[in-house]
Sequence to fold (250 residues):
Amino acid sequence: MARRILAAGNWKMNKTPSETTALINEMKPVVASDDVDVLLCVPAIDIPAAVEAAKGSNIQIGAENLYYEEKGAYTGEIAPDMLVDAGVTHVIIGHSERRGYFGETDEQVNKKIKKALEHGLVPVMCCGESLEQREQGVTMDWIRMQVKIGFQDLTADEAKKVIVAYEPIWAIGTGKTATSDQAEEVCKGIRDLLRELYGDDVAETTRVLYGGSVNPGNAAELFAKPDIDGGLVGGASLKTSFGEIVHYNK
Ligand code: PGA
Fold:
């Protein structure tokens, strides 16, 4: 079965709840699609507004983070049950901004992935190298380590449910996109690693996205690559022109 393309937005720390309602109402008609899956990952406080506004549309709502404990004395954190109860289906885990600014480690990413899966949430696990690492020629070593630790102890059935997003740090929010060949090379490398770890079925089923300055002008070329199954889109998911990314092949 062919993997479906996923256009996933990452709103980061943008939009208030009332702005969320307004933007999703504007987005609904322009992102309607039978062929492409559409996901918007929004700040935790915007989730109820987003879920309500997206009702009856093809937009799924995701979170940008979760904590790996069930409940308790973890001031400021969000438990998986809270996300599920609020109508969330997906959760971004290990975004480079969380790793960089908030010190998230590969081990925490692994715990969060397991916890998300336990609760039926689809983890969107991010990985990606810095410019320095790319220049040092260690990109694939780094990515393999991030994915290997992120997937530690997952069964094949669990691994298939995870979505991996390859996001080179130097391409995030910089307007500097990886070329489609650079992006394909790493996304293929991730698929090859999944094949090594789990075999063909997982490698062919698991979706691997590219992220980093995806926009309406470059989405078609990126998504046409055999190992790129869509995009994780930051800045360009905050505008209704996100619809042009969803309809990249039109
Ligand atoms: P960008 O962000 O599209 O604004 O580069 C992508 C991301 O960080 O997920």
Strands lie at 6-10, 37-41, 59-63, 90-93, 122-127, 163-166, 207-211, 230-233. The pocket of 2-phosphoglycolic acid is lined by residues 10, 167, 172-173, 211-214, 232-236 (CB under 6 Å). The CA atoms of residues 97 and 103 lie 9 Å apart.
